[in-house]
Amino acid sequence: MSDGAQVQKPTVTARRLGLFTQHDVIVVMRRDCPVCRSEGLSPRAHVRLTARGREVYATLYQVDDLIGPHDAALSEEAWQLLGVEEGDPIEVTHAPSLASMSSVRRRIYGARLRPEEIDIIVRDVAHGRYSPIHLTAFLTATSALPFDEAETVALTRSMVDVGDRLTWDSPLVVDKHSVGGLPGNRTTPIIVAILAANGLVIPKTSSRAITSPAGTADTMETLAPVALDVPAMRRVVEQEGGCIVWGGAMRLSPADDIFIRIERVLDIDTEGQLIASVLSKKVAAGSNHVIFDLPVGPTAKVRSPEAAEHLAERLEAVAARFDVAARCVLTDGLQPVGRGIGPALEAREVLAVLQRTADAPMDLRRRACLLAGAALELAKAAPQGQGIRMAEATIDDGRAWAKFQRICEAQGGLRTPPVAPLQAPILAQGPGRVTGINNRRVSTLAKLAGAPDAKAAGLRMNVRLGDEVAPGEPLMVVHAETQGELDYALDYAARHPDMIDVTP
Amino acid sequence: MSDGAQVQKPTVTARRLGLFTQHDVIVVMRRDCPVCRSEGLSPRAHVRLTARGREVYATLYQVDDLIGPHDAALSEEAWQLLGVEEGDPIEVTHAPSLASMSSVRRRIYGARLRPEEIDIIVRDVAHGRYSPIHLTAFLTATSALPFDEAETVALTRSMVDVGDRLTWDSPLVVDKHSVGGLPGNRTTPIIVAILAANGLVIPKTSSRAITSPAGTADTMETLAPVALDVPAMRRVVEQEGGCIVWGGAMRLSPADDIFIRIERVLDIDTEGQLIASVLSKKVAAGSNHVIFDLPVGPTAKVRSPEAAEHLAERLEAVAARFDVAARCVLTDGLQPVGRGIGPALEAREVLAVLQRTADAPMDLRRRACLLAGAALELAKAAPQGQGIRMAEATIDDGRAWAKFQRICEAQGGLRTPPVAPLQAPILAQGPGRVTGINNRRVSTLAKLAGAPDAKAAGLRMNVRLGDEVAPGEPLMVVHAETQGELDYALDYAARHPDMIDVTP
Fold first, then answer.
1. Closest CA of chain B from A204, distance in Å
2. CA distance A228 to chain B (A)
3. Are the Cβ atoms of A4 and B488 closer than 8 angstroms?
């Protein structure tokens, strides 16, 4: 009936606008642009840009001047994704209607998704066809009526399939993941150093923070470059047995990276989404032996031992579907780990543990050895019950620190974490004993201070559960890079004195 | 602990960027702007702009040139909302953290919301503090686990309270509302004319399309101005007894207008949201006798008589909590009403019914009289069982047409609906009888053709259920204002031949 799809569309001219929008893909065109007029494009239209065989979905904004009537001025994100050069022709049309949103709507109304429906959704997401509104609807709907196991398996598989996959010569590839929610829980660099020093292969890809003040990649970035591509990562692993790199620079489960941006804004991360997110990254990274750290506490992500058992069971069951041997270790999630919260503040404590300095936080060391020990046992590199001791010995004899330095050098050079120029204490109001620490509020405070984007920002805890404090004694010290963020964090602290419970 | 909140913030200078973004509130600043640096503001930060005692929440984008280092360049929406003039000082800070999102998160995880939580959410929404992501999460969560009656009542009340309320001298104020989903169901202008001609007070405020190709306001706008403010609307009602104006130009349930923008993108509109949306507008408009038209059909919004009964019961119960006498009329929702779908195409049929021309669609006339009759009876202006006859008589003796013309004149002058420059038929593939019409696909087709933004766009149905057709006979004619939209619509029609079932 129509040959509309075959019509050669008139093009507009690529212009680099130099507009920084984080991940928003924006194109600006004139209201009197002939293509806008013939296509019936109005402000905020969802459009498809095609150039050099690539296609990108963008939000259209319009102007009456500033650019020429035949120009398409692209935000930096749009410019990078489309890979054009100044003056290239671009075809601009309405984005095709998103058929997979009808699956999302059915899911909103309580229907379960079939694997093939999930597959189309994940493909559309990975190709940038879902706007933040569409992404939010999918994530919220699958949080309100959580994914069942079949959906979780299907989501994991689709998320793996839509990206790249790494393969390794070693038949045994180890990995480790902490379920978030516990500030300062920065064991990964220590564990990688221990395991690699013991001859295991652990090509660790980490994410940046989702809802926390620091992801492993954020922390590690203050110690060494982490944005390695796959060949560079492979060189590091072949040379040292392990690495700690940012997974976002690769295309391992790219849909996950897109989901995470929205989960971060909403501060939600449900069981099914969490499992698919974590396992898709592990499977894509080629891991087959994985240790999961599940901190349990009333203000951690996993709030009760029962919830932890349920998550562990589901995680191990879904992992088995992908031939991954997973073991979950339930850990203490009552209070932050170590003292520092924020990328650089946590990185300094990683160094302290590896270097065995006098001020090294012993709880961080214990956790790292517990998890490294479990991994050594899972990989049969240590006899059952001997894993922790082997891990501790690897730190104590300096092999872990030596290995960590070599890994950092191989990743591009060991760095010194920055120190925040602005620091201000939060003082105890009255005397008493510390009886509770709200991990969520502490995380929020560190984020308001600028973490994780401001690497030096965050806070340092001066107290732990059970400590006695006197009035006017500092409970913690906020670190910030700018006065605005410091003010903002201190204002939040003043409004939430229940962040640290001091019982007289 | 901090006096951060009292610190006098340095300001930036208001610049009008001339950027058309529909409802997106955007501010563009330099990356090296001192305020961005001191506040730690990065691209896509959610910021609060304060000027002249007003505050507006905006998304920050950044540039390296184009504007001065002390400039804050505002999108048109931001410019209007903030009400500044070129060169005014603006204070820019991080948006405060949204405490009410923790209620939304609890709701996502299945907890019910208390009235006071709903109230804070609605206030935050009405003040523009919710981003599209936050709004989507709230709407999706309350669709997946639908609002119960207590939540629906609380939402309705909060949505009324956060806006303005109209009051009328008449103790009896009538209103009418059709639950959407049925293309071409344009009875409102006819009903208002009939009721006002019979001495009832019906100050009708209508919305623009939510998910349909034409809202009543969109259609009416092709016949007369509809963007009246409250004093202008009051003059029309005092003079003529009725009006048909766009409610969005008033502040009646302003949160509803914000929710609707997102529902439109997602194409969702659940029972609780629908009831709160509709009733908050009616209560705010001062109506106390309301007739609801509930079209029922497999591809209408209400799909079964059972679902309609449930909705009717809930609607009437919630209405009673606000002292509104509501009556629901279940109507045939099997196929579009009349022939035209789209603002101008529907407006011409409204005129045909009122003017009693030979080609007036009788189904549109019957529906309007059925609903007007129910309203006359509910308002005790007609004896029980006599309403329809009284309504028909009001059309037949020309009083409805005379009243309609006077209302249009009072609103600013009767207009002639535009005719689309481009028209193309969709042809029957083979011979047979029309056994099904998919309302949703027909609506989508009309929207792809440009409706409702392109007033003349949409389509005209040439067949109704039961009609015999020959191969090559036009089933419908697509109307468009631009070639791009026509192509786009025809392409969709080609891919969905099941839009109209022709059974040999």
1. 29
2. 24
3. yes
- Asked if the Cβ–Cβ distance from A38 to B145 is below 8 Å, we say no
Q: How does DSSP classify residue A333? A: -
> Which H or E run contains A314?
helix A305-321
pLDDT at position B449 over 80: yes
Do A177 and A290 meet the contact criterion of CB atoms below 8 Å apart? yes
CB-based contact A23 B40, cutoff 8 Å:
no
For testing contact with chain B, the best of A20, A74, A443 (most B CBs within 10 A): A20
d(CA A319, CA A280): 9
Residue B335: count other Cβ atoms within 10 Å of its Cβ.
25
B450-469: b (≥16 Cβ within 10 Å) or e? bbbbbbbbbbbbbbeeebeb
Nearest to B136 among A19, A64, A140 (CB): A140
Partner-chain contact B64 A38, CB within 8 Å: no
pLDDT band at A8 (very low <50, low <70, confident <90, very high): low
| B5 pLDDT higher than 50 | no
Q: Which two tokens stand for residue A343?
A: 């990328």
What is the distance between the alpha carbons of residues A121 and A139, in angstroms, rounded to a whole number?
Answer: 12
3-state secondary structure B75-139: CHHHHHHHCCCCCCEEEEEECCCCCCHHHHHHHHCCCCCCHHHHHHHHHHHHCCCCCHHHHHHHH
Q: Are A21 and B61 an interchain contact pair (Cβ–Cβ within 8 Å)? A: yes
Q: How distant is the Cα of A395 from the closest Cα of chain B, in angstroms?
A: 38
For the sheet with A500-503, list strands across it. A468-469, A432-437, A500-503
Taking CB atoms and an 8 Å cutoff, what residues of chain A touch B41?
A: 484
More confident residue, A85 or B210: A85
The residues, ordered by sequence, that sit 6+ positions from B285 with a Cβ below 8 Å of its Cβ are: B166, B173, B175, B203, B205, B247, B252
pLDDT in tens, A239-297: 999 999 998 778 899 999 899 889 988 988 888 999 999 999 999 999 999 999 999 98
Q: Give every strand in the sheet of B325-332, ordered side by side.
A: B174-178, B289-296, B325-332
Residue A405 CB contacts under 8 Å (≥ 6 apart), including other chains: A414
The pLDDT of residue A18 is above 70 = yes
User: Is residue A486 within 8 Å of residue A446, measured between CB atoms?
Assistant: no
**pLDDT tens per residue across span B128-140:** 999 999 999 999 9
From chain B, the residues in CB contact with A59 under 8 A are 24
CB pair distance less than 8 Å for B490 and A2: yes
SS3 A410: helix
* pLDDT (average), residues A368-376: 98
**Chain A residues closer than 8 Å to B61 by CB:** 19-21, 24, 26, 75
- Residue A249's φ and ψ, nearest 5 degrees, are -80, -10
Catalytic residues of A: 269
pLDDT at B268: 86
Spatial CB neighbours of B416, under 8 Å, sequence gap ≥ 6: none
**CB < 8 Å to A424, chain B:** 2
Residue B256 annotated as catalytic: no
Q: Give the bridge partners for A474, in sequence order.
A: A427
- CA-to-CA distance for B487 and B496, rounded, in angstroms? 14
Band (pLDDT 50/70/90 cuts) for residue A3 is: very low
CB contact (8 A) between residue B1 and residue A483: no
- pTM for this structure? 0.85
CA-based nearest distance A360→chain B, Å: 30
Nearest CA in chain A to B39: A484
Is pLDDT of A5 > 80? no
Residue in chain A lying closest to B428 (CA)? A1
